[in-house]
Give the backbone structure.
Amino acid sequence: MVLIYIDQDNQEIKKASLEAISYGSALAKQLGTSAEGLVLGTVHDDLTTLGKYGASKVHQINNASLNHFDARTNSNVIAEAAKKLGATVLIFAHNINGKAVAPAVSVKLNAGIVTGACQLPNTDTGFVVTKTVFSGKAFASIQIETPIKVISINQNSFGEVVGDGVAVIENLAIDVPTSTLKITSVNKIEGEIPLTEASLVVSGGRGLKGPENWGILLDLAKALGASTACSRPVSDSDWRPHHEHVGQTGIQIAPNLYIAIGISGAIQHLAGVNRSKTIVVINKDPEAPFFKAADYGVIGDAFDVVPALTASILKAKHGA
Amino acid sequence: MKILVCISKTPDTTAKIAFVEGNTKFDETGVQWIINPYDEWYSLVKAIELKEKDPSVIIHLVTVGGADTEPIIRKALALGGDEAIRINNVTNDSLTVAQEISSIAKEGAYDLIFTGKETIDYNSASIGSMLCALLDINFISAATKLDLNGNTISVTREIEGGEEISETNLPAIVSCQKGMAEQRIPNMRGIMAARTKPLKVLEATVTQATTNIKQFSLPPTKSGVKLVDPANMDELVRLLKEEAKVI
Ligand SMILES: Cc1cc2nc3c(=O)[nH]c(=O)nc-3n(C[C@H](O)[C@H](O)[C@H](O)COP(=O)(O)OP(=O)(O)OC[C@H]3O[C@@H](n4cnc5c(N)ncnc54)[C@H](O)[C@@H]3O)c2cc1C
Ligand SMILES: Nc1ncnc2c1ncn2[C@@H]1O[C@H](COP(=O)(O)O)[C@@H](O)[C@H]1O
């Protein structure tokens, strides 16, 4: 059986988990087995709807003490659940919580693990999982040698596959150890889509000259309904908050559309965005290295091009 | 107070990524090796900051790798570690690395174990979490801030769309990222002192890998940029809608 860990935050199911279910159920089909979900804690969502993504069953450990994430407790509980249910493959989203628990679970199950997978395993001979390495600059195909396998999948690499199944909910009784981690506060940035979950991203670099010029970028992001990001020097200079920094040493993202404004395209920047499906580069220097990694390029001054692009988008939206 | 800082060696961020031997090995020709930036800039410097506040803090460094990691570990000592341990095991298997580190960690009875968020070559982001299971102590990942108060730490970690602050007693494992500390450059005194700091080499004890890399490959190259006239943004919008189908 393929068991998919369904991550929750504040009693709501994380978007990345829906993709993990889609991936897990495609893998289950390939292996001729069932795909089942595992939820820790109590959640507000209707768990039967997870059937749409391919889970035939959802096992729920209905214990409110699991509503707060603790890597040590969660990994203990997930490993116990996997043993009890006889899971042979475990799937996690390669998001913040998935990264924190999947490797610990693999240790407890004596299972080989591949983190950051980007496609379905090849199970023709053996079990070979392909993942991105060198920050998206290459792929490695890795054979898992153990009977039980653990995989975490890169966000936005497989996509959500929606059908019309309905999942059966089953309560699972597992002893929950008392967490010794105390959460003292949670600060959410209001109304913003987390960068790793955004499908459209508008990003600015040092070419915008200073924080006072970010208005044109924010207008474009608003017109598109996009999240905003920036290059490292921009966040290092506190022009923009640190959580917007993308790249090798920042956040790695893979949106459908990445628009880079006044960013030169240094290799360390590209390492965070090269998995984007479509890249648009706006730069006044035709020699900027970013153009080599772009699908569409506009050679021009951002201060003219960006407002014009925003106007065109608004025009297209409201049906010219 | 004893801190163990896990140090890994990675190719320089600008290294050319190529493969040899039928795409089964990373091509190391001409590659400059550096301390994994997360280990150097954030976890090591954070440990040094804690020592600067309380000189009784002892910082040990551990690396799992061949003799070619020694320049890296010397640099880490120059930045501020007290002693280093190298476990002589050349492997790409995360579990092997974590098991080697866990036996050092058990022996040394460390209060705090720092890892980087991930290595920039294999991007596994696994060692901290594996140590959590192997040592059965608390683990806080993707930390951006840490305060030590006696036997307790308060750690801020990144979560999707915000941050979360939690507290735990020591011992604990923390994986570090941007925000924890500021990058430093080793000074001459540090470099001189590093030459005589102890660097202990231990033989490998773990031999059974759970995973094996079969093949590397490179992403397909982009077909080339399509340039759009800056005076015609309607055309760019049309392309994004009709050709790329992303908006
Ligand atoms: C170990 C290491 C890790 C790193 N990690 C990261 C990382 O994670 N993320 C990251 O981003 N960087 C990272 N860097 C830094 C990286 O090397 C570059 O220095 C950085 O990405 C450059 O940022 P930038 O493109 O905003 O600025 P610049 O390189 O200064 O480029 C500005 C661009 O704006 C253009 N421009 C100027 N004016 C205009 C205008 N009016 N209209 C349009 N275009 C204009 C210029 O032509 C230029 O191409 C790292 C570096 C190192 C050494
Ligand atoms: N070979 C190694 N020796 C010591 N520490 C390591 C090694 N590999 C990884 N680490 C530590 O574990 C962190 C996460 O690495 P990884 O799980 O491989 O992405 C790194 O930032 C290091 O702190």
